[in-house]
Amino acid sequence: MPDRSNGASPRSGSEHPTTVVVLVSLLAAVQLIMVGILGEYIGRIYEQVKQRPLYVVAERVNIAAGSAREASAEGKFPRAVSAVPVAQDVNLRSQG
Description:
Elements: H1 17-51, E1 56-57, H2 68-74, E2 80-81
Antiparallel strand pairs: 1-2
């Protein structure tokens, strides 16, 4: 016959299996919340990088609405204000 001097049930290794289940569930919930926060952070970074313009046009000078493509093909660009200084020898466009 098993010794029951400590009050533990002979069929279980723990006196309170409910406590273990609740603690594991809470830790899993905390992990899922943290993964969600990390996913939001990475998603916002991705959206910023994907939609960031190379330059912001402050004013169009002597360019008609239809001739914008022709002017860019000739190398005549409208005056632009850059939010971030860009090195001239760096290719910022993706290759794929």
